[in-house]
Amino acid sequence: MLPTLSDRDVLAELLAFHLEAGVDVALGEAPVDRFEESANERAAIRARAPAGPPPAGAAPGAPSRAPIARPSTSPALPAARGPVAGPAIASPGAAPLPPDIAAVEAREAAASAPTLEALRELLERFEGCPLKHTATRLVFADGNPKARLMLVGEAPGRDEDIEGKPFVGRSGKLLDRMLAAIGINREAAYIANVVPWRPPGNRTPTPQETAICLPFIRRQIELADPDILVCLGGPSAQTLLGIKDGITKARGRWMDYDTGTRTIPALATFHPAYLLRTPLGKRMAWRDMLAIESRLKTLPATPNV
Ligand code: URA
Fold first, then answer.
1. Distance CA 157, CA 168 (A)
2. Ligand 1 centroid vs 92 CA: distance in angstroms?
3. Is the model's pLDDT at 152 over the cut of 80?
4. Which of 271, 274, 275, 276 has most ligand 1 atoms within 8 Å of CB, for mutation?
5. Ligand 1 nearest atom to the CA of residue 153, by list position
6. d(CA 105, CA 76)
7. Centroid of ligand 1 to alpha carbon of 191 (angstroms)
8. CA of 165, closest atom in ligand 1
9. How far is the CA of 181 from the centre of ligand 1 (A)?
10. How confident is the model at residue 21 (pLDDT cuts 50, 70, 90)?
11. How many whole angstroms from 97 Cα to the centroid of ligand 1?
């Protein structure tokens, strides 16, 4: 006779399945049936839709998105998106935006933010990046937005997702020690990530997710207006500095970064998570920290109002 699985075994198997699939944090107390949610959404759309043939090119029963609201100064969207009003944010629960449209929306939304606080609020309401729906919360920035030094990583991990601040886990602790070695603490640095939501299971963000988030981090850098930008790790350097080289080749070389209003020196260095795995790299990282220290000393400080 086949052994029967106890509830405990079933639960253990389910947990193991979720862990293998990269699920390592619970987002809510109760499970959510997304299939039922989208079926209800489709039914509601059908109920609202006027009788008559579907528009040319529309799949039968295809859900339509709520109109995207946008700032009055932004150029018009393709006509198919419908009328717009209010801030540049899609309604939550609507079907996901195609990545290219989401990237256009991100550009317009980011450009419309006059301050870092406004940018954070826009991101809180931005529905164009699917990572938002699997992350616990937005991880916008930590440190001092008026600091002369800005550091940008790739994307938050589990600890950052829980706390809502970048670089607070093991690699963050190492980053703090690296900065402390050149006399810098979080009051003298501003820290953010290219992607402000944790990818599930800490996977690498997809190129589409990165492209959607890119206008926001660019605007964040422009608004923070640091004197020096440091890219932590290859993905951050490749995304922000537009280089193809891996981090071993790219690190330690000063490059120019155009903030949109001025050109500032930028340096790529090893990501602290890499240094935790590869302590040999710390010698090179130390050189990079010294280069940052000396550049901060020689570079005239820009008045940051
Ligand atoms: N790694 C990153 O790139 N960013 C964080 O905030 C944490 C770990």
1. 9
2. 26
3. yes
4. 271
5. 3
6. 11
7. 10
8. 6
9. 20
10. low
11. 26
pLDDT confidence of residue 56: 42
> What are the CB-based long-range contacts (under 8 Å, 24+) for 23-32?
23/200, 23/201, 24/158, 24/201, 25/136, 25/158, 25/161, 25/162, 27/134, 27/136
Closest CA to 113 of 222, 27, 203, 210: 222
Looking at residue 81, its pLDDT comes to: 34
Q: What percent of the chain has pLDDT over 70?
A: 76
* N residues, the chain: 305
The first and second tokens of residue 130, run together, are: 């699917």
Mutate which of 193, 195, 230, 271 for ligand 1? The one with the most ligand atoms within 8 Å of its CB, which is: 193
pLDDT mean across residues, the chain: 84
What does the alpha-carbon distance between residue 67 and residue 300 come to, in Å, rounded to a whole number? Answer: 47
Ligand 1 pocket, CB under 6 A: 153-157, 160, 166-167, 169, 171, 193, 273
Q: Which helix (H) or strand (E) holds 163?
A: helix 158-163
> Strand 189-193 vs strand 254-258: parallel, antiparallel, or unpaired?
unpaired
Q: What is the pLDDT of residue 94?
A: 66
- Tokens (6 digits) for 5: 């699985």
167 CA closest ligand 1 atom index: 6
Q: Is residue 199 within 8 Å of 219, Cβ to Cβ?
A: no
**pTM metric for this prediction:** 0.74
Burial of 235 (0-12, 13-18, 19+ CB in 10 A): buried
